[in-house]
Amino acid sequence: MSFASKLRAAIATNQSILCLGLDPNPEVMPAKYKAQYDAESATHHDHAVAYLWEWMNFIIQSTADLVCAYKPTLGFYTALGSAGLELLAKTLAAIPPEIPIILDAKHADINSSTVMAKTAFEQWGVDAITLSPYGGQDLAARFLMYPDRAIFVSCYSSNTTAQDFQEYPNRDQPLYLNVVQNCQAWAGMETLALEVGAANIEALAKVRSLAPERLILARSIWANSQGNSQENQYKIDNLAAILNAGLDANGDGLILPVNQDALAIGEPAQFVRSLRDEVNQAIALTAHQRPSCELWVPNVCLLDRQGHPDSNSHTNLILQLFDIGCITFEETVQASGQVFPYYIDLRKIISNPQVFDAVIGTYAEILQNLQFDRIAGIPYGSLPTASGLALRLNFPLIFPRKEVKAYGARRLIEGNYEAGETIVVVDDILISGKSAIEGAQKIESCGLKVRDIVVFIDHEAGVRDRIQQSGYSPHAVLKISEINETLYQSGRINEKQFLALSHSSSDLHSNPNQ
Ligand SMILES: O=c1ccn([C@@H]2O[C@H](COP(=O)(O)O)[C@@H](O)[C@H]2O)c(=O)[nH]1
């Protein structure tokens, strides 16, 4: 079972979003083990570790029906030497298989990442691991080779001195928000989650607004709280605010840690149960504050998503495309000479296997309903996509050359074909339709038939009519207006950018010859 499914099941079964750290930290050991641990540790280190095991095992046995995940911190185990690694193996084995394990490793070293992924996922059998983001996508990729496991990218720490780096260069565009934005392009929602120090609730809210669908593991939520040891109870001071900042639009997507200090009190079950109930009550109280539409929105909801079956996957894809820089707001001269205040560069998807695969999937859904013998990509932008489609759908590929070589075979079309065959043309974006129409005509000049032109983005403003007037049927995965509204509603673009995108397509409509 994948990490995501296991977590969902554990949350549902135990009615809990609490994650409990299994940290054999002698400094917070309950008194009932501590005296024996201290007595043994000076002379018989291995015997002393046995008391840590008793403690860890007791915590697991007492709380397995109250938490949604366990989180052993690797550093506490390695600090105990070889006995610590044996303790880790025993502790992991004691966790019921239906409760996911998040190994808190904050792994950062690229050289050891392949072997670390193998050990963590294959030998220790953990379901997820925390990573430092600064090893980059290469480091994460070693762990993402295991599609049923997950990574938690540590994107914000509550350590006071970490602010020097995280908030760099300024509070308006801090590094940590760049991390949040970029790392989401590494993998989908089931396999890449975020770890956020939530002592600063504003930071948690900012992360949530940039990652509306990701699972977030909040940390340090106890930093501002006062323990009340007399009543054997700890309260999270800002619970409602933390939930409001961290929950997703459906009231999910957040895991909260149990206070480690509270485990020192010796009877964890009672404490964890009352914390779980308190959290669940607070979640229920936040329900009325959530917008009723499916997207998280700042204060408006423009989309009517009724009867739009693919809206969810389209939304995610649009946000990912934006986050990997496929949509930029800079003045660009189009092939027609017209200047647009933005540019859509779908060529970037090839550098992101996750997004590339999703984009190909959306084209494939359209192609599956069409009749054709071969696929043709329009160079250069659409050649990788057309190649991906040819492999995925098992159809032969051709492409019309952009320029005919003055030497060699001087072919107008690359690849083999038979005259009279039907070709489906694949292109990236229709602005005026000129590139796609010219490509289709080049193919037809070689004795082939073109019926359908399939693109990822229809820029609207009458381009479909132009394609039809040229004798072809246009099909598009997304319309520019859908992209624009989704980006605006999710807070990715501001009103000025929203209006720029809306106006450009309508300007083109009023002057279709441009
Ligand atoms: O934002 C843009 C605009 C254009 N392109 C490229 O141009 C053609 C589409 O333009 P037509 O006017 O329809 O010929 C498209 O194939 C892209 O290669 C772009 O990428 N992004």
Structure description:
It comes from Pseudanabaena yagii GIHE-NHR1. Keywords: Decarboxylase, Glycosyltransferase, Lyase, Magnesium, Pyrimidine biosynthesis, Transferase. Pfam families: OMPdecase, Pribosyltran. The protein is an alpha/beta fold and 514 residues long. The chain has two domains: 3-300, Alpha-Beta Barrel (TIM Barrel); 303-510, 3-Layer(aba) Sandwich (Rossmann fold). It is built from 20 helices and 20 strands. The strands form five sheets. It has an eight-stranded parallel beta sheet. A six-stranded mixed beta sheet has the order 17-16-15-18-19-20, sandwiched between helices. Helix 15 packs across helix 16 (383-393) and helix 19 (480-489) packs antiparallel against helix 20. The longest helix has 19 residues, at 45-63. The relative contact order is 0.07. Mean pLDDT is 88; it is low at 228-232, 292-310 and 509-514. The structure holds ligand LLZGTKA7. Ligand LLZGTKA7 binds at residues 334-336, 343-345, 381, 427-435.
- CATH third-level topology of the largest domain: TIM Barrel
The biggest beta sheet is recorded as: 8 strands, parallel
> Low-confidence runs (pLDDT<50, min 5 residues)?
228-232, 292-310, 509-514
Based on DSSP secondary structure assignment, what is the total number of beta strands?
A: 20
Report the span from N to C terminus: 54 Å
Radius of gyration: 28 Å
In total, how many domains does the architecture comprise?
A: 2
Strand order across the largest sheet:
2-1-10-7-6-5-4-3
Give the ligands present.
the ligand O=c1ccn([C@@H]2O[C@H](COP(=O)(O)O)[C@@H](O)[C@H]2O)c(=O)[nH]1
Mean pLDDT: 88
Give the overall shape, derived from the CA principal axes: elongated
Structural class comes to alpha/beta
The proportion of residues in beta strands is 15-25%
CATH class of the largest domain: Alpha Beta
Family: Belongs to the purine/pyrimidine phosphoribosyltransferase family. PyrE subfamily.
Cofactor: Mg(2+)
Domain Orotidine 5'-phosphate decarboxylase: 17-275
GO molecular function: orotate phosphoribosyltransferase activity; orotidine-5'-phosphate decarboxylase activity
